[in-house]
Structures are given as structure tokens and as C-alpha cells.
Design a protein that fits this description.
Length: about 400
């Protein structure tokens, strides 16, 4: 056994082959790298930049428009305070973002317009609304001034903003034409100040609001609108507000080239009322309608395709003074259906949505011509509208 150990190589003898192996490896690696470097075609410099021609006029116009309008577009989010227990007696209060969207500056008083569904969560206790402005990116708290869920519009206000607010230029939706260029600026997926472009695809669309009511005259566009764009402006090529981006049609939940915007004429009618009263002043005739099932039965009985059967008339209302009748009994005690409203001011009324949409084009105190059926005979009367409670 002693001879066996005596014949083993010493430590220095064992180290020599290892050092030789390391040297060969390093030398081989150096040769490989040198060969790779040598594979190039010689000395190389960055490619020279090819001069481009001037931007096209429409590009220049779009760039100028975005630069001018972007300061008017804001980022809106709702934040909820959540208490988290840190110890038996200690609680941490965390502010957790709940939802986000876009908005735009309406006036220098700090009013911001957005969608109602963007700030709806802030109506819950413990939830607040915050706004970030492009030129002053810190989050600022805002208060809710008023909302109109039937039109999916809301107004919030920055009470102590340090930024100089730039109101957006307001256009009109009366003279829009299918095919004209449109631009959307907003915060899709939280990416603030994002521009998308497209054309006006269709006019006069109808869509359901957050309350289930139908919004008429809606603008359809193929400008990409994604989650986070809600409440942002839809602009024409002059940078004027022509609509408020509200929703998309998409099976996947992202832009499929079909977006919808509330027309600016509706916005310009609703927003001043929200600022002044905190709500929309709705005119009313002073009637109560039959429930849907009974209304269908009455319309079917008279062979009508549409109309609003009156259940009752409010005492002291314009409808009562005009002589409209609700459900009543005849001299023999038989129950008779009330009058059926079929038109107002030369516009057909096929259902309650039609009735409300027609009335919303008027103001309390105005007179309207009401066409109705009584015992199968067509009649007309004038009704003075009153403010709905």
C-alpha cells in the first residue's frame, strides 16, 4: 500500500495538466473570437441618413392639431380607500385604483367632461375621483358636479388645480358627413395621450346607455377606441369636439373598428345643465304609462304597431289641463283604457323611449302638440310641459 501511494503524482504534478488545459481552452476561444471578428468585410460605419421630403400637408395639420388639443385631454380614474389590518389595533388605509378613463377640459373654471360609467364607482362611499392633466401630471382630486346616466355623460370639477386649464374647442354634429377624418385622443389601457385616427363610419346610430335608455344620433367611427378611451374626445380635422367616445362593439373586448361616440350637440345640451343644476331638467307631460305587458295587450287590441297607453294623469299637470285621460270607468262601471299617445310635434311615438327622446328636445314651460287615440279615433291637443321632479 505504501508503494501505491508513493507512485501517485505529486500536487504540483497534478496541477500542470490542469493549467495546460485551461491555457489551451483560452487560446482556442481567442482564436474563435478572432475568426468571428475576421469574418466581417472590413471597417464599417453607420449608414448615412437619407434626407426626406417635407411632411405632407395633412400630416402637418394632424401634428399641429394634436399639439394644440392634447393639453385639453385628461386622464380620469376612481380610487377606493381599502383598510388593511397591520396588527390587532393597527390598520393601514390603502388607495386602490378601481377604474380609469379619459376626459377633457370644458372651461377654465375646472369642469371636466367624461362618461358617467367612468366615474360611477365614485358614487360609492369611500371612493374618490382623481384627474391627471398632461401639463401637470400629478393626480389631483376632483368632485362630482353632476351626471346623466341616460346619456352616459358626467361633469367633475378640479377645485384647486395648479395647472392652467385649456378648454377644448367645441364643434357641432349637425353637419357631419360619413367619410370625413376623425381623431380620438385618450388613455387606452392606461397609456396616456394616445392618438388614433380613422373616418366617420356612420351617423344616427342608437345604443343603450348605462341606464338602459337608448341614446339617439350616436356617431360610429373606425378610429381605434379601447378600454380607457371612454370619456375622451372625438375630434374633426380642425381639432373641434364632435363627440365623446363612449363604447365599442367588440366580441374580444378590444377595438374591432366599430366605436361609438355621443354627439357633441347632445353634450352641449346636457353639460351646461349638469354644471348649473347637477342634473338634467326633464320636461314631462304629467302622465303615468301602462306597464309593458298591459301596453302590448292594449296596442294589440286596437291593432296598433306602437304608442304609449296612458294609465293615469297627474292632478294639476299639463296633461290634465289639456284633457288627456288615463284608465277610467264608464257610466256602467266598465273599465276603459286611457288615451294612447301616438305622436308629438309631427314625430311618431312608437314607445316610451320615443316619447322621452321627443320631450328631451324641449324645455319645461314649452307647448307641444300631442296626437293621441281615444276610443279608436285620432285627436290632437296642446300640452304645456312641466319640470319632472
Amino acid at each position: 500500500m505504501a508503494d501505491f501511494y508513493a507512485n501517485l503524482p505529486t500536487r504540483s504534478q497534478r496541477r500542470l495538466p490542469l493549467l495546460v488545459g485551461i491555457f489551451i481552452g483560452l487560446f482556442g476561444g481567442w482564436l474563435l473570437v478572432d475568426k468571428i471578428h475576421g469574418m466581417g468585410g472590413g471597417r464599417a460605419e453607420p449608414r448615412p441618413i437619407t434626407p426626406r421630403s417635407d411632411l405632407q400637408p395633412d400630416e402637418k395639420a394632424a401634428i399641429e392639431m394634436v399639439s394644440r388639443v392634447s393639453p385639453s385631454v385628461v386622464y380620469v380614474r376612481t380610487v377606493q380607500k381599502v383598510a388593511r389590518r397591520r396588527g390587532f389595533f393597527d390598520m393601514d388605509v390603502l388607495e386602490v385604483p378601481q377604474g380609469s378613463g379619459s376626459g377633457f377640459v370644458w372651461d377654465e373654471a375646472g369642469h371636466i367632461v367624461t362618461n358617467f360609467h367612468v366615474i360611477a364607482q365614485a358614487l360609492q362611499q369611500g371612493t374618490k375621483v382623481e384627474v391627471s392633466i398632461s401639463e401637470h401630471p400629478n393626480w389631483e382630486q376632483a368632485e362630482i358636479v353632476g351626471g346623466e346616466p341616460d346619456k352616459d355623460l358626467a361633469v367633475i370639477r378640479l377645485s384647486s388645480s395648479k395647472a392652467k386649464l385649456k378648454p377644448i374647442a367645441v364643434g357641432t354634429s349637425r353637419d357631419l358627413q360619413v367619410g370625413q377624418k376623425v381623431f380620438a385622443i385618450g388613455n387606452p389601457f392606461g397609456l396616456d395621450q394616445t392618438l388614433t385616427t380613422g373616418v366617420l363610419s356612420a351617423l344616427g346610430r342608437s345604443m343603450k346607455s348605462i341606464s338602459g335608455r337608448t341614446i339617439e344620433g350616436v356617431i360610429q367611427t373606425d378610429a381605434a377606441i379601447n378600454p380607457g378611451n371612454s370619456g375622451g374626445p372625438l375630434l374633426d380635422s380642425a381639432g373641434r369636439l364632435i363627440g365623446v367616445n363612449t363604447m365599442i362593439y367588440s366580441p374580444s373586448g378590444v377595438s374591432a373598428g366599430i366605436g361609438f361616440a355621443v354627439p357633441v350637440d347632445t353634450v352641449n345640451e346636457v353639460v351646461p345643465q349638469l354644471i348649473q343644476y347637477g342634473k338634467v331638467l326633464r320636461p314631462m307631460l304629467g302622465i303615468a304609462r301602462e306597464d309593458e305587458m298591459t301596453a302590448r295587450q292594449i296596442l294589440r287590441y286596437f291593432g296598433l304597431r306602437g304608442g304609449v297607453p296612458i294609465l293615469s294623469v297627474t292632478n294639476g299637470s299639463g296633461a290634465e289641463f289639456a284633457g288627456l285621460q288615463g284608465r277610467h270607468e264608464d257610466d256602467e262601471g266598465n273599465e276603459l283604457p286611457g288615451d294612447i299617445i301616438i305622436g308629438i310635434d309631427n314625430r311618431d311615438v312608437m314607445g316610451y323611449d320615443d316619447l322621452r327622446n321627443v320631450l328631451e328636445s324641449h324645455r319645461p314651460g314649452e307647448m307641444v302638440n300631442v296626437k293621441f287615440l281615444r276610443n279608436g279615433k285620432e285627436r290632437t291637443t296642446k300640452v304645456k310641459l312641466q319640470e319632472a321632479p
